[in-house]
Amino acid sequence: MSGGQVLWAVGDSDDPYSPAAGAGRVVGAHLRRLRKEQGLRMVDVVRQGLVGSAPTLSRIENGSTPLKVTIVLALAEYYGVTDPKQLESLEKLVRRSQDTYWWEEFRDAIPGWLERLISVEATAQAIRTFEVQYVPGLLQTRAYARALMQRALPLITPDDADKRQERLDRAGKVRQRRRSLLHEPGAPEYFALLDEAVLARPVGGAAVMRSQLRELYNLEENEERVHLRILPFSAGDDALAPVPSLTYLAFPADREQDMVYLEVGIGGSYLTDPEDVERHKLVLTTLWASATTREETLAMLQHYIDRLAH
């Protein structure tokens, strides 16, 4: 929130409600910043023969045209980027921008704000999230997610029972496909901080919740890129968060493109103002410092798993 206005993470698009800023927009914004740092106008770049026209360069920078690896790398090098790792990150993002987004076939089953989040997650290098009420979407089992959606979907779907069931089934498929992100090559580093209340609330009943907690235990114990911690009740008021759901997303090409996602009810918003992003990042860092260690996390998960066995 900046000056009371939500800053949507969609680059310079005229439509703030269009699908989320994907890899193309991250790359474009990065190139625009590099060009401006060099004091170059668009016409200066065109004169070098790197792009055909100023409108073409504008579309590249706005992420509104398909990107080519050769052109992006040529522009970056012209702007002074020589670090092989930076160039490699840009190339990966360009190739990501060329992918067909898997969720497009499910647009009827997911709201626009969730489509934006899925797109941004797919581009991030690291994701840090804090949840007060529920297990984060990327870590939910099928049964747990279904229990949550059965509560939420009646608020956003027609009264027709068959249509609601069909949408519920398709939304469930989206959840499961979204989860696969954490197991793909080059998956983002994922840090999830859960309030202890999440473990204590038996969403879907004891059996569903026990299975979900076992999944969390398995992820923390076996997945190198997934880091799970618990904010215990004993942390007291030193661990109070300003919002119930907070996610920080970091991108490989340009830290100025990092953003924060806040979820409220059945909607969500993005913050991109650097001061707002840094402030919420600090909140996550402070909360993480009050959390359980890895060993304590596993022990607490086992405690709640055992409680649900009786």
Describe the structure.
With 310 residues, the protein is α/β, with parallel strands linked by helices. The chain has two domains: 23-97, 434 Repressor (Amino-terminal Domain) (Orthogonal Bundle); 108-307, Endonuclease, Chain A. It is 48% helix and 12% strand. It is built from twelve helices and six strands. The chain has helices at residues 23-37, 42-47, 54-62, 69-78, 84-97, 112-123, 142-152, 161-179, 196-200, 206-222, 274-289, 294-307, and strands at 126-131, 189-195, 226-231, 245-250, 259-264, 267-271. It has a six-stranded mixed β-sheet, with helices on both faces. Helix 10 (206-222) runs antiparallel to helix 12 (294-307). The longest helix is centred in the middle third of the chain and has 19 residues, at 161-179. The chain starts with 22 loop residues before the first helix and ends with a helix.
